[in-house]
């Protein structure tokens, strides 16, 4: 569908990246993004500066699409007013590893891993190079990333949305529903063919999801509670976590509140670790 020759000519793809893809150093999902570029309205994950209202370059035309918001970008220590990346918050014991994994999967499935130091999003592989994710999380995050870039149908080579992949048996529903929830809550399901956000009503019309998936996405009160609130320690859903976020006044990014006082981790408020920084302007 996309021309590699045109991508090289237009500067969206370099010869080095083409060779890396041919030798298996760049996964097909990331290569597809490079080839597609902006002119096909593909969502960008590599070094894309974010806004608080729009994580994709393209804007859906239907008014039924909910307003776009960002996924949870990091953790805010309310004791020291310091913001942390998900990985550093885990290392500092502000959040538990399972919560960290779920937050990162939500980022990967909606447009890329967030670096709060520069308000940019990166593919999973590039995020690993930047130290934003643990190597042990890579495979699960790469799977989550497919919800954004598309799942390749091994028979037709077509790029499928995550809902279509479930219907065709290429992705387990229990795994996929988490990705769809994150997309739905941050502005709509992602159609990897166009890069656009799609409301669940339009998604069922285009068979991106079936009626069962639609009911599950509409019933937000029944979303799985697999995140631990860092302050109250109660099990909450991703929607509840989003609702409890505070906006970092410096970057405008949503941060899940935590407390180093409660966790037992002592942070020097005058020092902001690498890739993290004080939240107060």
From TrEMBL:
Region of interest (Disordered), residue spans: 40-63
GO cellular component terms attached to this protein's record: cytoplasm; intermediate filament; membrane
Protein origin, superkingdom: Eukaryota
GO molecular function terms listed in the Swiss-Prot or TrEMBL record: cadherin binding; structural molecule activity
Keyword Magnesium recorded: no
Keyword Transcription: no
Name of the protein: Envoplakin a
Organism: Gasterosteus aculeatus
């Amino acid at each position: 569908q996309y021309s590699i020759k045109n991508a090289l000519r237009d500067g969206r793809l370099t010869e080095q990246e083409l060779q890396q893809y041919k030798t298996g150093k760049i996964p097909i999902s990331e290569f597809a993004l490079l080839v597609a570029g902006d002119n096909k309205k593909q969502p960008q994950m590599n070094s894309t500066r974010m806004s608080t209202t729009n994580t994709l370059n393209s804007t859906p035309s239907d008014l039924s699409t909910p307003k776009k918001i960002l996924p949870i970008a990091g953790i805010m220590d309310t004791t020291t007013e310091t913001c942390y990346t998900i990985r550093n918050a885990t290392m500092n014991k502000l959040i538990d590893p399972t919560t960290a994994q779920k937050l990162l999967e939500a980022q990967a499935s909606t447009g890329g891993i967030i670096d709060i130091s520069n308000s940019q999003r990166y593919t999973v592989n590039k995020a690993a190079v930047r130290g934003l994710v643990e190597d042990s999380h890579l495979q699960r995050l790469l799977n989550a990333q497919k919800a954004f870039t598309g799942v390749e149908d091994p028979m037709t080579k077509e790029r499928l949305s995550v809902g279509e992949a479930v219907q065709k048996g290429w992705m387990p529903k229990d795994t996929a529903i988490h990705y769809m929830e994150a997309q739905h809550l941050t502005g709509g399901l992602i159609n990897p063919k166009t890069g656009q956000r799609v409301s669940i009503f339009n998604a069922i019309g285009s068979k991106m999801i079936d009626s069962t998936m639609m009911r599950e996405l509409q019933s937000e009160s029944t979303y799985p509670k697999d995140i631990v609130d860092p302050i109250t320690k109660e099990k909450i859903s991703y929607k509840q976590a989003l609702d409890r976020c505070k906006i970092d006044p410096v970057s405008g990014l949503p941060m899940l509140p935590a407390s180093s006082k409660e966790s037992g981790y002592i942070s020097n408020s005058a020092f902001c670790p690498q890739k993290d920084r004080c939240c107060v302007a």
